[in-house]
Q: What sequence folds into this?
């Protein structure tokens, strides 16, 4: 997506707009990972599978 969109955005808006837009997307991705992706450091593989099941069951009950 970036490979296809960058040249077009560069021609239309100059260098600052595409870089700012991609930086904003990176920041949103970073915030998403910090808030929604569970920490798995030191967690057994079997326990990680349990995390997925727990998250699905919470959504189903809501």
A:
């Amino acid at each position: 997506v970036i490979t296809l969109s960058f040249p077009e955005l560069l021609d239309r808006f100059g260098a600052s707009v595409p870089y700012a837009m991609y930086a904003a997307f990176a920041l949103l991705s970073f915030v998403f990972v910090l808030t929604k992706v569970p920490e798995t450091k030191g967690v057994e593989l079997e326990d990680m599978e349990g995390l997925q099941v727990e998250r699905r069951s919470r959504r189903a009950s809501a």
The chain has a mean pLDDT of 84. Residues 2-61 form one domain.
